[in-house]
Design goal:
About 15% of the residues lie in helices and about 25% in strands. It starts with a helix and ends in a 7-residue tail after the last strand. It is of the alpha+beta class. It is built from five helices and 16 strands. The protein has an eight-stranded antiparallel barrel. A five-stranded antiparallel sheet has the order 6-10-9-8-7, with no helix packed on it.
């Protein structure tokens, strides 16, 4: 018995001298930049040239990805308008601060001078939402939303859905593109287009048809001079910003296309990016929000074949 007690005491002395067993160091969370740097090739997808538009301005090219899964008629009609060169020579007619840029025919209200639509349709039924479909990808965000029961990403597009009504829809956020309309819901068809350049006007969700989003060239739109007329419309002809052309990428020679890749929002890498933005581990951040809203989830875009993280 004495030997057993003595042995136990020796063990206690050794433990006291050495101290408690050291715990393994906590693994440092990766920043968004570090996650992007190790993204795999399969985490990216190439743009479909048949569903990509090039808006050409004197200052450069704006690239718009269409969303036929949510607005099939509008996507098709806008391509038809582009293919009949309807937009060529028209203008940006409205730039409202912290809201939208809008382009169309400056003479739209003058029947004798208005640009004629030859093959496309002048108006379409509204495509404000669609039925939830298991074939349409959806990556939900972990935090709540003021305007919808659930929000997330579908093939890179910001989407809300309501399982109770079995509906899902594109939502307004920075860079989203929609078809302007009048008071009746079927008075738009894509002849006039707007892009959100400021705060996310979510009150417009399911009130106007959204058909796509700008992937590259937002700075060419958001930096335009603001209109001083009502709702940001330009009041003088010399203020209008000329549109050189709008083309479907599939109709542009290969050598003149902009090859972009978009991160797959159904990938594990994207899920990790969302978590990294919810809980910033960058040295600069003192407080980790632990929350994220749909408008604060950028989808990475890069030149095709660019090094990881670029």
């Amino acid at each position: 018995m004495k030997m057993a007690i003595f042995g136990f005491c020796i063990a206690c002395l050794i433990a006291a001298a050495v101290g408690p067993a050291a715990e393994p160091p906590a693994q440092k969370s990766l920043t968004a930049a570090e996650i992007l740097a190790v993204a795999k090739a399969e985490d990216w997808r190439a743009l479909d040239p048949e569903n990509t538009l090039y808006l050409e301005l004197a200052t450069g090219r704006v690239i718009i990805e269409l969303a036929p899964a949510f607005a099939p008629q509008h996507a098709a009609n806008i391509k038809a308008l582009a293919r009949e060169h309807y937009y060529d020579g028209l203008a940006i007619i409205r730039v409202q601060d912290n809201y939208v840029v809008q382009w169309g025919d400056p003479n739209a209200e003058k029947p004798e001078a208005a640009r004629k639509i030859r093959k496309a349709r002048p108006t379409l039924p509204a495509e404000f939402d669609r039925a939830i479909d298991g074939q349409v990808p959806f990556t939900p965000l972990p935090d709540g939303d003021v305007y919808a029961a659930e929000v997330g990403l579908s093939a890179g597009f910001p989407v809300a859905r309501d399982k109770g009504s079995n509906r899902m829809w594109l939502v307004h956020g920075y860079g989203m593109a929609g078809a302007a309309r009048g008071n009746t819901v079927d008075s738009g068809g894509g002849a006039e287009i707007y892009v959100v350049i400021g705060q996310a006007p979510r009150h417009l969700d399911r009130n106007i048809t959204l058909f796509g989003r700008v992937l590259k060239g937002m700075e060419l739109l958001s930096s335009l001079p603001r209109g001083n007329g009502t709702m940001g419309f330009y009041e003088k002809p010399e203020q209008l910003v000329a549109i050189k052309s709008v083309r479907v990428a599939a109709d542009v020679p290969l050598a003149e296309r902009s090859d972009l890749e978009v991160m797959r929002t159904d990938s594990e890498t994207f899920r990790r990016l969302v978590e990294a933005r919810r809980n910033r581990s960058d040295e600069w951040f003192v407080y980790k929000a632990g929350r994220i809203e749909l408008g604060n989830v950028p989808v990475p875009v890069r030149g095709k074949g660019a090094p990881a993280g670029k």
